[in-house]
């Protein structure tokens, strides 16, 4: 029997409690979930990919079916390479939906065999984004309510 593989792509710059929540939900729907840390060509990363990968690995070290990998290029190509059937995306708002829907439709044209699944964020995580967390960090604020405890900013 074939394992069901999914990916949850993102820049995770840094990983947030909202990401963690969605990733754990998604991991219950597949045999293997790959947290795919990519570089967004339209954004300059605040933290190096290795640091972001380490934070994610530490966050999910107690989950046997969650694996963390880095990738570059198109997410759909990475999903194909990993034999994934699903791309999971978290939705916080209707703005997220409009943006993610365009990407999902484009990916579907490129590969009809890989399905995008949207998972709604819990209300308590709806306002959290990596960019907001970075702004708090830049201004020496307390991010402990917004990121997993494994994220250590030094």
Secondary structure class reads alpha/beta
Q: Give the biggest sheet.
A: 5 strands, parallel
Distance between the termini: 45 Å
Kindly state the mean pLDDT as a whole number?
94
CATH topology: Rossmann fold
**Strand line-up across the major sheet:** 3-2-1-4-5
| Poorly predicted spans | none
Number of domains: 1
One letter per element, helices H and strands E, the order comes to EHEHEHEHEH
Looking at this structure, what is the CATH superfamily? HUPs
CATH class: Alpha Beta
What is the tally of beta strands? Answer: 5
| Beta content | 15-25%
CATH architecture: 3-Layer(aba) Sandwich
Shape: globular
Helix content: 25-40%
* Count of alpha/pi helices: 5
Description:
With 154 residues, this protein is of the alpha/beta class. The protein has a single domain, classed as HUPs (Rossmann fold). The protein is 36% helix and 20% strand. It has 5 helices and 5 strands; from the N terminus they run βαβαβαβαβα. The chain has helices at residues 17-27, 49-59, 75-81, 94-110, 130-138; strands at residues 5-10, 32-38, 66-71, 86-91, 115-120. Strands 3-2-1-4-5 form a 5-stranded parallel beta sheet, with helices on both faces. Helix 1 (17-27) links the parallel strand 1 and strand 2 (32-38). The radius of gyration is 15 Å and the shape is globular. The N and C termini lie far apart (45 Å).
